[in-house]
Amino acid sequence: MANWVTGQDESRMYILSGLAGIGKSTVAYTIASRAANPKLNLLGASFFFSRDEADRNNAKKLFTTIAYQLCVYDETFAKAIGDVLLTESGSAATTKDPQEQLQALMLDPLRSIVQSRARPILVVVDALDECCEEDVRAVVEGLSQLVRDFPSFKVILTTRPLPYLDYFLDNQGGHKLFHLQDIEDKVVDSDIRLYLRYNLSLEKVREHFPRRQWCASDEQIDALVLAAGRLFIIASTAVRYILDKFASNPAAQMQKLLRACAQDHTPLKDLAHFYTVILRNIVPANCDDDDIVSRYQSVVGAIIFIQRPLPVSTLAHLIDIDVEEIRVVLDKLQSVILLGDDDVPRIYHKSFPDYLTDQARCKDPCLQIDSKIGHTQIATYCFQITNSHLKYNILELGDLARYMSNEDGLTKDGITDVQLQEKIPQQLQYACVYWANHFEPANIEDTDLMNGLEKLVHEHTLHWFEVLSLIGNLDLAHRAVRVVLKLLSTSSELHRLLSDALRFISKFYAVINRSALHMYHSALPFTPTDSLLYCRYIKEARHNICFIEGGPGKWDALVVRLDHEEKIKFIKFSLDSTLLVSWSEEYVDGRHQPGKLKIWDAATGTPISKIPGHKFAVTNNFSTVAASSDNIITCYDVNGSARSTAFPISSTIKELALSDSSRVAAALSDGTIWLWDSRNAELIGSFDGFESDGWRIPLLQFSITGARLAYPSADSVVKLRDGISGRFIADLQCGSDCGSECGSECGSEWSADIFIFSDDGSRIASVANDHRLALWNTESGGLVGAVGLRVRGMDYHLAISANGSLLATADLDDVTLWSENRGHLAEIKVLKRICPMSMAFSLDNILAIVTHDGIELYNTNTHSFFSTLLFIGESFTALAFSPDSTHLACGDRNMDLWDIRGIDAFSPPSQEATKVTAISAMALSRDCSRLACGFMNGTVELWETSPTKRRSAFHHGDEVSTVGFGPDGRLFASGSEDGTIQLWNGGDGSLHGTLTASRDLRAVALSSSVLVTAGWDATLWSLDTQSLVHTFKKIGDTDLVSISDESDLAAFSSLNIETIYLVDIMNHTTISVFTVSNRIHKLTFLPDKSHLVAQTDSGNILSLNLLNNCVTNGPTLEHLIRLPDTPLWHGVPVWHCSANEQHYVAALLSQHQDLVPVLWIPGDIPVNKWTQGSSMIVLGCDDGRIILLRLPTSHDG
Fold first, then answer.
1. Whole-prediction pTM value?
2. Which residue(s) pair with 768 in the sheet?
3. What would the pLDDT profile of 21-67 be if each residue is shown by its tens digit?
4. Is the distance from CB of 206 to CB of 215 less than 8 angstroms?
5. Coil, helix or strand for 317?
6. CATH no. for residue 42?
7. CATH number of the CATH domain containing 629
């Protein structure tokens, strides 16, 4: 191997494979040490994986570490890599996946430098088998790419035998692979003899014990060689045992070891006997001291079973054993457990815990470590730790910091990492993160264990979520809860509470992950009031600024609304229904812009990874994701780690497809289709005939089995090929030659518009531009049947059932169901639905139809609609069922994930459900005792707010566009766009009068004596005579109006030109005109009329000085606290805001110049109107709900 490093061998990567304990790492260390010798100076970098260390059990820091060491190794490298790190993209690459790190930090900056180097540069990577399984492929392919692109680099990689490695080398070639176990016995024995003779020589012994004159004899060395049995780990462990500083007597240690080995006349086949000898130092044979055995099993068991290495001081908390007692155990086991300078005990070799936990090999019960007992013990102590430490606001954040994001809150209160560790010590962090890992294999019949779990769940669930959020591990909560749910009886109260907790953390994950304490401020108040979690924990919301009325009563089918951030093109579930993908592709001025693909947990909506690119594809089992960028296709795993397999293309990529049969297909702008083997990037073939014009996405599709590949071509053809070999199967003539069954109306000037495979891959359905539906057999490409469609409108949609037996087509007004019937397509049902936007079948033939009313679920077996899910989308909405038919996902810019198991698809057909009607206008009386609501169906409702109840409802006529109260609340008005204004008694709701204004009426405002309107005309009315007084001709089209209490001033907001007019009502003249930069939602005069305060749609505040005609941007505290319609919380102004479709309530805290969100409104609540008064904010929703955000009645400053 040393010769290979300096030689001219064509292979650039040397893979050293061997069984556990055979000496791979020792060889790697030796070669690295020799290469690092200044005389050679060949060692560029090294990295050693370790499963026990979080930074070294994955590949996240592999290439950043190698890049850093290359900077130390060579000044030229340091300059090139340093320049990259100064750029935004280079700096960002340090946190990207391994492939991106390799590309950005090494391949790109060093390419021109390395090409001219003749001397080899060695990189050593040890113990690949200790890297997490998900990253192994990325490591191997990344290192392979490094030596392929840089011939002067050589890599030594050591590992235990890995199936993937053999597979990779078979397909890749060009690398040297050596199996250490294949070396002849005499060679191995000779190497071990050299090692022992050197380390047990007089010189080496005196380094440990200066006064000792002992060294191992040849006979003793031979005996140890025989005992080692070709396992280097035995030899190295023997050396540590003999030179144990605690024993301080190498001669005696040698004799003890040889006596034990002499009992077995054959070489040890494994480490069992050898480890037993060592363990006798701490647990004597036939030990009858239970305390000694218990202490040994607890200490060693904890070191084996903990999920990450911990210092002794933290370990002591997890097993409730004194630190000094732990050290007593460790001092006697130094040859198998290393206690480093960081005071963290680490197992030398995995064979040690393997032996202790295997009862077939470890025969002595006193030495055995029972995994169930060990995990039960640790889990129990984890619960003791959490239940004694967890509490509300564990960091004791101040009034301002508790409403901020975690990062900003810690900064605001000056909480350092040291202070965070004091408030949330290591043992608490460990217990919160890993208790479920220990609970899963534990004995759930153990009373102490279950009592601890019950206390955590019943008293500290939210406090646990709080800590996980603060330490950045909230994503682990879902798994922990699901682990416990699987082990509990579904009828238990504990199961109910944890089920609520799972729904809670899924629904509110984004807000809790951003800000731990907003779990109490924003998530808990919107938790269903009938849920056990709400009842148990609502007391934790006692510190909140707002108290919620009108929130949900029960958990609905919606699991979570996910923010994709861009228009979603495609949604897909994995075959096992555990994962969900959404992706977007952006176009600006007709040019393709970078999009993104996101992968989510399909049960909870937890984000897993995000992958950038222009075009995307994913295998059905989600083993591989492909993304194209700059004419290169890169493959990723589900965690977003790039693999080195890349497919460079000369033309623009129009579409991508992946199959589970290891195939990648790309449709290119030059009209060709390319097909590769994804395992080795080998090109299988390229085919002409791709034509995308006039076709709807997806343009390139594999069947679910990967057996067929289909793509559009010219002349109304869909080309069908074998998905493995690329062999031509058939041209599916979707147009004029599709057969006589289409009818006589077939024309010759049209092309197919959309085609899709059935889920079982047996059928393809297509709809053409001339409105012909066709169904094809994918085995032969034969036509099953075709029929002409009656289509209204330009847009239409197509869905096919899992086995291809049912089809659904949709136009502007209808959804039509079709079935295959003796070689024909037969119409079986026409469903009248307005503007269907998307459709999908579930595996059990439930049809989901997205319309403007929501997602309607139709049972094709009973031919009845049985449920409607609230969803508001645009003309095309991505839609998908999970393969197990338990979940449904639908996306526009946001993606809604529903669990539909609780919806009865076989409920008796019901009468047409009453359509919910959206709230279209809202107003509160000045004292907040009355609420007036207008609805799109023309209904007006009057509500009392203390207590909250509907007092009366009456019909206005057309859709209600505005409502408004007079200053004393005794009168309110409602108006509609047809110009009708009705005056109502604010006490009993009786009709007081009707006015007829001009059309396009949008707003009204009342004083004690007059009414003003905004719309196409701005008008003034007398409330006494109920007659028109004046029309303000010069103001123009307005949509908002306000009036002073004294009836002398009015303000109008222009509809389109963002102008505010101040009007003298008495003289009917315009006093001032203000120009603003945003649409205005609300205008209010200060009591002294010195200022007019405007609130924009987004919640921004503008102060218009009516004395000097200037505008001040931003909230002014002295103005806000004087407004009659601004809620105050202990003297702090609070009001509604919105940004990017996110509604929230903000407060202007005097010690902070910026607005602070104090309540985030869940994104699934379809808020479309809001109003506010002195003590509450009211939200009106598209589904007709009214939600009151009530502030405490005390207004103490």
1. 0.80
2. 752
3. 677 888 888 889 998 988 889 999 999 988 767 778 889 899 999 99
4. no
5. helix
6. 3.40.50
7. 2.40.10.480
